[in-house]
Design the sequence.
């Protein structure tokens, strides 16, 4: 990189000349509009391209460098918002979606269409990228592969510096696709190194299976963790940190291990979704494969009751597979009872995966795997092309047994049936089954309950009792216990809580097994050398879904933390460089989000600590009390306010607005405390150990 002093002197000299050349031009933005290049008259009036002259205009200086088609806008003089956005717009219209922003930041604009050959890996491109990386040049074409190449080279350098690739942006920006393509590039680089070593007479490179396994995990995790939202057909509803162990090998390096850390799985989506959205992809693929209609399941937004399932067979893909003998055999190996009934998954609408660049089934399906988009099994045969079959092939290649996969499908179908279990008060009409013990809730229809119990491997009577009654144990005296009947609404909440917990358990089970399969066979890297760290972070983007709840607050808090990291990495580091070279660091201006982070998380009165405090109060804590505390401590600050107008279903005093770095977002505090401390009562825990 050029020194800050030399760059500043060069820019000031060029800027003086350019200003004289473009004195009659300026950037202008009408209220509510976009920046455009306008003409400033001698009288000071600003004329827009359409000939209008407006009094209410925001203007900014124009420089001749602003019209250049640069790969990196930091080479512009007098760079500010207007020329940056204009450059991105012009490149977007040319089909160029990637733009550098300095040596360490890549800007990406989702094209919402297929760009042919965007993610091909020709040898020529690889040679050019490698040569540029060796020269430490920023002349490599802006591309996610360039970012991955730099990280790969850096982690394999003599210093072995750990690398982290962070994909950040709002929901639908293309983060999932960017992470998938960078992971694909790294897997190819590792596999190429193994191939070269084998061709040179090295040992048989059986470990190349690891690269295939790493790519196969993409399909599994996206199937169970991604869903269709209003703005995105393949939105990640969880955060994923992919931790790769990279070991020097021959003249390059290889991936020697992989593990995943996940966070913020939006499990509330399991029990219900907002209008126009869907649950996790795997449910729809599973039902399609079984010939069942999603509209028959209340959890997926349906209203009809689910039909009786087709007769079970002895095949591994029967609806309610995983026999008691299989479960006992798995449990005997040391896994919890519930784990013995679990495994597998996939997505729907693969062709529209995050509407991301170049993402089509033909080019690179959600399943990942190979260059031609097919998942490879252990034997190297192409897997079937149906969504569920692709996921099952990936799971098999990742070490899941047929019993594991059947157990997962059985559990998911059990959750769907459980969602159809409705409750009414005594005296209600319908095919009612009175709760054992004479409680105040009735199961409206027995069939869904019986099918759910069969799929989950529990007695129907015990499941019914656990959903309609709870055991209360007195803390004083001899610790006597009593059965407390649940109202229909309480029973419905217990049912929904159980579905959310079970799905989280399935997801955690999958991640645990994937990590075990991808772990190195022994401590240390290949050849005894310690592996180096290369990580990729893909997290749910900043979002505003209209009616925002605790899930959105936590997602946006995570994105505030990432913005803070970006500020420190780019702006604060640049300001320190200016100061070290004797330049006024006021030239580096940016908006800090430290204040809003303090409002969200600083103890003792940040929003999150206040929420935790309400949870510790037990039955005395409530979401209403939390909302009062928010306004009591932050109502007069500039970062928290009451909404100017309320949407349908929102109540005054319950909704608060937070001024995030990306904009003002309103949150409905209803159910905040309940979601934060959600726990199954003892009877459900005893029924299904989780």
Sequence:
């Amino acid at each position: 990189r050029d020194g800050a002093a030399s760059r500043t002197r060069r820019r000031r000299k060029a800027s003086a000349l350019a200003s004289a050349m473009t004195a009659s031009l300026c950037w202008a933005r009408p209220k509510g509009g976009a920046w455009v290049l306008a003409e400033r008259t001698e009288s000071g009036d600003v004329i827009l391209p359409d000939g209008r002259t407006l009094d209410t205009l925001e203007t900014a200086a124009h420089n001749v460098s602003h019209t250049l088609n640069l790969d990196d806008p930091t080479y512009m003089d007098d760079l500010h918002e207007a020329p940056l956005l204009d450059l991105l717009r012009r490149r977007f219209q040319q089909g160029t979606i990637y733009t550098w922003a300095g040596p360490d930041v890549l800007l990406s604009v989702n094209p919402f269409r297929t760009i042919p050959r965007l993610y091909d890996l020709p040898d020529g491109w690889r040679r050019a990228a490698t040569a540029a990386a060796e020269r430490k040049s920023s002349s490599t074409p802006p591309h996610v592969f360039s970012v991955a190449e730099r990280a790969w080279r850096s982690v394999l350098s003599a210093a072995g510096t750990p690398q982290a690739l962070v994909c950040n942006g709002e929901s639908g920006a293309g983060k999932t696709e960017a992470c998938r393509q960078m992971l694909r590039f790294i897997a190819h680089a590792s596999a190429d190194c193994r191939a070269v070593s084998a061709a040179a007479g090295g040992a048989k490179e059986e470990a190349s299976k690891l690269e295939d396994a790493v790519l196969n995990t993409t399909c599994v995790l996206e199937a169970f963790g991604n869903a269709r939202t209003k703005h995105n057909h393949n939105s990640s509803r969880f955060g994923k940190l992919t931790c790769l162990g990279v070991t020097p090998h021959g003249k390059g390096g290889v991936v020697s291990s992989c593990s995943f850390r996940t966070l913020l799985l939006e499990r509330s989506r399991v029990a219900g979704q907002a209008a126009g959205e869907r649950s996790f992809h795997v449910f729809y693929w599973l039902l399609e494969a079984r010939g069942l209609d999603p509209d028959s399941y209340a959890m997926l937004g349906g209203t009809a009751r689910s039909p009786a399932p087709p007769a079970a067979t002895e095949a591994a893909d029967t609806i309610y597979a995983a026999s008691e003998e299989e479960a006992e055999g798995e449990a005997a190996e040391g896994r919890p009872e519930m784990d013995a009934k679990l495994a597998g998954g996939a997505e729907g609408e693969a062709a529209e995966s995050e509407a991301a660049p170049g993402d089509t089934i033909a080019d690179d399906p959600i399943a990942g795997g190979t260059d031609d988009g097919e998942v490879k099994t252990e034997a190297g045969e192409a897997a079937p092309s149906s969504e569920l079959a692709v996921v099952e092939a990936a799971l098999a290649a990742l070490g899941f047994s047929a019993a594991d996969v059947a157990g997962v499908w059985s559990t998911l179908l059990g959750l769907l049936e459980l969602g159809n279990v409705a409750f009414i008060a005594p005296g209600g009409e319908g095919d009612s089954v009175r709760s054992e013990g004479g409680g105040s809730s009735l199961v409206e229809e027995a069939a869904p309950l019986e099918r759910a119990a069969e799929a989950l491997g529990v007695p129907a009577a015990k499941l019914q009792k656990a959903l309609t009654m709870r055991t209360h144990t007195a803390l004083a005296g001899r610790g006597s216990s009593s059965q407390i009947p649940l109202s229909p609404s309480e029973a419905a909440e217990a049912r929904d809580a159980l579905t959310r917990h079970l799905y989280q358990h399935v997801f955690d089970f999958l991640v645990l097994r994937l990590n075990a399969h991808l772990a190195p066979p022994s401590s240390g890297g290949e050849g005894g050398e310690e592996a180096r760290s290369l990580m990729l972070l893909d997290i749910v983007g900043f979002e505003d879904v209209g009616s925002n709840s605790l899930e959105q607050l936590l997602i946006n808090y995570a994105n505030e933390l990432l913005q803070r990291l970006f500020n420190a990495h780019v702006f604060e580091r640049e300001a320190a460089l200016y100061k070290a070279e004797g330049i006024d660091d006021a030239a580096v201006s940016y908006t800090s989000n430290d204040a809003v982070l303090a409002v969200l998380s600083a103890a003792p009165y940040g929003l999150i600590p206040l929420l935790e405090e309400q949870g510790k109060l037990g039955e005395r804590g409530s979401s209403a009390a939390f909302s009062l505390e928010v306004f009591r401590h932050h109502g007069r600050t500039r970062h928290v306010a009451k909404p100017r107008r309320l949407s349908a279903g929102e109540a005054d005093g319950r909704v608060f607005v937070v001024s995030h770095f990306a904009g003002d977002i309103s949150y409905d505090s209803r159910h905040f405390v309940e979601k934060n401390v959600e726990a199954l009562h003892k009877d459900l825990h005893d029924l299904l150990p989780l």
The chain is about 40% helix and 15% strand. The CA atoms of residues 568 and 574 lie 9 Å apart. The first strand starts at residue 25 and ends at 30.
